[in-house]
Design a protein that fits this description.
disordered N terminus, 15 strands, Immunoglobulin-like, 1 helix, five-stranded antiparallel sheet
Length: 187
């Protein structure tokens, strides 16, 4: 019988003064809390500008802590790799550099028109897929000049981290308990 496992995602966002770029999972904004998915399931990561904030430009990277999960793009053709950038930017949003399964950098912004005002989704479609039953962290970090709500956010600022851990479902725990009792009786 297959063991049924679930993944719990916990997103801890750091405050960027009054300005926030919010990571969403499958279109739902995630603040501090948990989301449960199965190990074989993939989730879509989006980046959203919250209500009342504005953004002039951004350059953020998605970084995985180990090879037990992977970031995948809908297709492998540059510059957009199948990602969607619904917000209108003069400096068209795109994936910068060569993405890997562990690192994807995304940038975009305004050059001459007014800054974008939220709420707005600025990136959709980055896929996260867990490969193993070990803890994985996905960190979203500022890579280059990022200006939100008139504030320059320093390079290296962590916008948020998804802590991915597995929690067995109650049925799995019961089956493991019964199996251990059976093994104990046999010995």
């Amino acid at each position: 019988m297959k063991k049924l496992l679930a993944l719990v995602l916990v997103l801890g966002l750091t405050s960027l003064a009054s300005a926030d770029l919010v990571l969403t999972v499958d279109g739902n904004p995630v603040t501090q809390g948990q989301i449960t998915i199965s190990p074989s399931q993939t989730i879509e990561l989006d980046l959203e500008l919250t209500s009342g904030e504005n953004i002039l430009q951004y350059d953020v990277a998605y970084v995985l802590s180990n090879a037990q999960a992977e970031l995948t793009l809908p297709n492998q053709t540059p510059p957009y790799y199948g990602l969607s950038f619904p917000a209108v930017f003069d400096m068209k949003s795109s994936v910068t550099g060569m993405p890997t399964a562990q690192y994807v950098e995304i940038m975009g912004g305004q050059m001459s028109s007014p800054a974008l005002v939220g709420p707005q989704v600025i990136m959709q479609g980055l896929i996260l897929h867990c490969l193993e039953a070990t803890p994985v962290d996905l960190t979203v970090v500022v890579v280059d000049l990022t200006t939100v709500d008139g504030l320059d956010i320093p390079i290296g600022t962590i916008l948020g981290t998804l802590h991915i851990t597995q929690i067995p479902e109650p049925v799995t725990i019961a089956l493991l308990g019964l199996g251990s009792l059976f093994l104990r009786k046999r010995s």
